[in-house]
Task: structure prediction
Amino acid sequence: MLKIKPIFFFLIIFIFTFGGHVPPAHAQNQDLFTEMNNELREYIKPWQGKISLRYQNLLTGKYYTLNSQTEVPAASTIKLPLALYVMHLADEGKLSLIERLTYQSHHYSGGSGIIQYDPVGTAYTIADLVEKAMIYSDNIAFIMLKERVGKDQFVTYLKKLGASYAYPGGRNMTSADDLCLYAYELFRYSRQNENGKTLLQYLEHTAYNSTIPMGVQGKIVAHKVGMIPMNLIYNDTAVIFDKVPYTLAVATNGIDYEKSQEVIANLASIVDRYHVLTLKTNNDLQTINLALASAKYAVPSTFFTKVPDFYSYLLGKEIFSGISSSTMYGMSVRNNSFHQQLVFLEKSGAVTNWGFSERDGTASLNQSLAQSN
Result:
C-alpha cells in the first residue's frame, strides 16, 4: 500500500471533480436562485414593501435575501435570543435552571401564553419559564426572564451575536437578517450542548404552526413566531431539517392577520422547493459533502474554496495514509461514492460523521473502501 503524495492526489481530484461536461455548481445554482428570485418577487407583488425574507443553506453558506435588512417589529421572535442567552448563562454557572422565580402583579401581560391564567404568587423554575416562552410564546415568562437577566445585559448579548437591531432606542425591532442569525445560533448551539438541544426540541413542538411549518409539511421545523394581530405583524424564523438543513426568516408588516400566515407558508414552500433543487446538482452535492466533512473537523466550510484544499487538509491529518493510489483512483471516478462515504446525515437531518476519528480513521476508512470495492 502506498501513501499518496499530495501533488498526485491533487491531480486525480482535480481531473475527476472538475472534468467532464457538468456545468459548475455555482452556475447551476445561480440559475436556480434567479428562478427563485423571479418567482418570489412575482408572488409578493400584491404586498410590495410589506415582506422581508432571508434564506441560508447551513452547510454551504449560500443565501438569498429579500429586503432582509429592513427594520420590522420583532414581536415575540425576541423570545428566542432571550432563551438562548438564559441557557448560555446557565452553562456558565451564572444562573441555575432550577432557580425559582415568583410571578408578581407587575409581570402581567395578556396576549399569548398560559401563565396569565395562574394566580399571582405562583413560582416557576427558570427552566419552566424557558419552556413556556418557547412552546406557548408566553409573554409573562419572557418578562420574568428578562427581568432576571437584566435588559442591558440582554442587549449586550444581542450585539455580541451580531444583531443589527438590539432594542434600538428601546424599541423591540428586528430584521430578517437578525432573525436568521438567531435561528443559526439555535442550530449551532443545539449541536454542541444539551441545553441547546432542549431549546431546539421546544421549538419543534411549539403551539404555533400555521406559517413556515405549513409550507414545508413533512419536514422537522424548529421555529419561533412573533405576531401582533392588531398591528398586522406576523414574523417567523426557523431551522428546517431536510437532507441539508437551512434557516428561513420571513417578516410581514401590514398584511391581514390571517392572510399573512398563508403568505409566509407559501413563501416557505417556494424557498423549500428551490432548496431541494439545488441539492440535486452533482457539483453542489460535492460541496455539501465537503461542508459536512469540514463540520466534523470543526473547520469553517469557507476554508475549502476548492476541492483539493479539502483533501490536502485531510491528507495532513493522515486520514488517507496507507490507501493505494489505485484504490483512491477507483473511488474518485465511481459516481462520487468516495465523497458519500466520508459523511452521512442522520434521519433527523443533523450532521454527523460516519464513524471514523482522527486516531482510527485509517483503519475505518480502509475497511469501508475495501467493502465498496
